[in-house]
Amino acid sequence: MSFFFFSFSFGYTADIISTVEFNHSGELLATGDKGGRVVIFQQEQENKIQSHSRGEYNVYSTFQSHEPEFDYLKSLEIEEKINKIRWLPQKNAAQFLLSTNGWSRLTDSLPKTRVQQGE
């Protein structure tokens, strides 16, 4: 499956998606962007979607994974852009994923309840 993302010259480069990863079952989809944010989408249940549809994903959770940093020893700015996301194998009801900006790696846990609209 190919994904094509278009960016427009509005000055919001932080909102450009930099990585996409499905979990092992395909029920969850994680995206990371250049601003260090992770957005998790959950697939709608089959009984809720129409039979001619291939599946619909809705926002499940959103969080800031990485912040810009500065390495004082190397005099180097470390951008918050997420380079890669990986889902960890599920051992119980909890879902975990790893995200990296090329410099640091973070393990994030998903909330057990879905994000309500308007939050």
From TrEMBL:
Keywords carried by this UniProt record: Repeat, WD repeat
Lineage: superkingdom: Eukaryota
UniProt signal peptide: none
GO molecular function: protein phosphatase regulator activity
Record-level GO cellular component terms: protein phosphatase type 2A complex
Name this protein carries in UniProt: Protein phosphatase 2 regulatory subunit Balpha
Organism: Sus scrofa (Pig)
